[in-house]
Predict the structure.
Amino acid sequence: MAIRGKKFTESAKLVERTKSYDPKEAIAIAKKAAYAKFDETVELHLRMGVDPRAADQQVRGTALLPHGLGKQVRVVVFAQGEGARLANEAQADFVGADDLIKKIEDGWIDFDVSIATPDMMGKVGKLGKILGRRGLMPNPKAGTVVQAADLPKAISEVRKGRVEFRLDRTAIIHCPIGKRSFDDEKLYENLMALVEAIVRAKPSGAKGQFIKSASISTTMGPGIKLDIKSLIETSVTA
């Protein structure tokens, strides 16, 4: 059993372990329970009622958080010609083709999101082992493989707070919804936007209860169980 520190133990006392909280109440408690000196990230954790091994039960997509994530997002764009010009005009942090691919192969990976045009994916594919395990590989389902004309919009959305959610091997989805320093209402609206997007992404093969359990926590803080009925009903009517 993991040995918890004194600060965590004290913050955990704010949470009733057997209680499922209304989303707004849970957010308020999560912020109060955060004890780290840095601005902790507030995260949503969902245990899904799907089989991650089944091809028709995969849950993956993107959500545009209305208040962003509270951090600067460094964007790399793999493009050439007109695409490169548009990406530069949209103020992507790094734009390139073969030169950018070579730079990453040599060990550089100082960015948060990568976007590519379809014509570049044949070359970008060889970066799969480097970018894939870090969740940085461009993917059409994540909205990061787009036509050249759509690059300005894609870059803008990523900067504003578009996040990707994806089912992991244990049927869990982990996703940030903002920072502890955010107003409660902003965190709540981000949470609702994310849950709504996940509910919309329900795959055809999903049977029974789609979301089995949910909780939120800050980076260092205790988990706080969410009331599933309240969470889903509020998100789809927000």
User: Anything to note?
Assistant: The longest helix spans residues 184-200. Strands lie at 41-48, 60-64, 75-78, 94-96, 113-116, 162-166, 172-179, 211-218, 224-225. The radius of gyration is 19 Å. The chain has nine helices and nine strands.
